[in-house]
Design brief:
Layout lengths: L3 E3 L1 H11 L6 H13 L2 E4 H8 L4 H9 L5 E2 L5 H13 L6 H8 L5 H11 L2 E3 L14 H8 L3 E2 L1 H8 L4
Parallel strand pairs: 1-2, 1-4, 2-3, 4-5
Helix pairs in contact: 5-7, 7-8
Length: about 160
């Protein structure tokens, strides 16, 4: 099963909340194994988000993820165009701040959905659908609109039959 493209919150929430690096070593060993096998990967925009803080998570990623882990997002420009056009068409629902954030070319969300759409793969995110949200365009809501399958970390691990 897989591959899965993972959101930055896959790493950030695990590190800060559920599986701290200093407590849940087996989780991080499993993530490294999945990355090395190519079962999980991400995109360059997520790399930028993860590396900007220059913290323990950045250090872990640099030391443990293969060089091929972060894929070039520019290959999905056509899908990115579809998704940004859809977001702009929703300007009556979302606040301008939400649209600006989602449409910022340096933000990963629209690119992640574009990549998953282009490659017909599952996107792993900790975000939950909030179709009535005005303040933020949530990844699951974009996925639903474009028929992209999305799951959270635990569901991915269950589907893979992983134990640690």
């Amino acid at each position: 099963m897989g591959p899965f493209v993972v959101d930055s919150n896959f790493f950030i929430q695990a590190h800060r909340v559920n599986y701290p690096l200093d407590v849940a070593a087996s989780f991080w060993i499993k993530i490294r194994e999945l990355a090395e096998k190519g079962t999980i990967f991400s995109i360059d925009k997520v790399q930028n988000e993860l590396y900007k803080n220059k913290d323990a998570l950045t250090e872990w990623c640099e030391a443990n993820l293969p060089d091929t882990f972060f894929k070039d997002s520019t290959e999905v420009l056509a899908e990115y165009g579809q998704i940004t056009k859809w977001a702009l068409s929703r300007s009556d629902l979302y606040l301008q701040k939400a649209l600006n954030e989602f449409l910022d070319a340096d933000e990963a969300d629209a690119w992640l959905v574009s990549y998953a759409l282009s490659h017909k793969i599952v996107l792993v995110t900790q975000e939950v659908s909030a179709p009535m949200s005005k303040a933020k365009i949530k990844i699951p809501d974009v996925c639903i609109q474009f028929g992209v399958k999305y799951i959270n970390t635990i569901e991915m691990l269950r589907q893979l039959g992983e134990r640690f």
